[in-house]
């Protein structure tokens, strides 16, 4: 019998996977990393950002589309059909307050 995993933030046992919470109107289902509900709320409060298209919350550990902003600034958007433009070929991962694993997908001609 495998013991339940522990929260990577506080070390307490996590009995359900994925961790599910609602934060600022967004339903969050976090599979990886393993984080307990109280810690996930704290992480969302501290590290969430806002979608450059709709203004909605983007919680940490979310896949994001990346838009080129003014003066080389990068803006993140939800990876939904309503927020990601058809011409967007930049994708990444929103981590703890910063863009992680940012890549450019080559556009097809």
How would you describe this structure to a colleague?
The protein is mainly beta. The chain has 2 domains: 1-47, no CATH class; 49-109, no CATH class. It is built from 1 helix and 8 strands. The strands form 3 sheets. The protein has a 4-stranded antiparallel sheet, with no helix packed on it. It has a two-stranded antiparallel sheet with strand order 1-2. A two-stranded antiparallel ribbon has the order 3-4. The longest helix has 11 residues, at 37-47. The chain starts with 18 loop residues before the first strand and ends in a 5-residue tail after the last strand. The model has no long low-confidence stretch (mean pLDDT 82).
The Cα radius of gyration reads 16 Å
* Overall outline: elongated
Widest sheet: strand order? Answer: 6-5-7-8
Structural domain count: 2
Instruction: Bin the strand percentage.
Output: 25-35%
Which key terms come to mind for this protein?
single chain; 109 residues; mainly beta; 2 domains; four-stranded antiparallel β-sheet; two-stranded antiparallel ribbon; 1 helix; 8 strands
Short description:
By secondary structure, this protein is mainly β. Helix content is 10%, strand content 34%. It has 2 domains: 1-47, no CATH class; 49-109, no CATH class.
In terms of topology, how is this protein built?
Layout: E1 19-23, E2 26-30, H1 37-47, E3 49-50, E4 57-58, E5 62-68, E6 74-78, E7 90-94, E8 99-104
Antiparallel strand pairs: 1-2, 3-4, 5-6, 5-7, 7-8
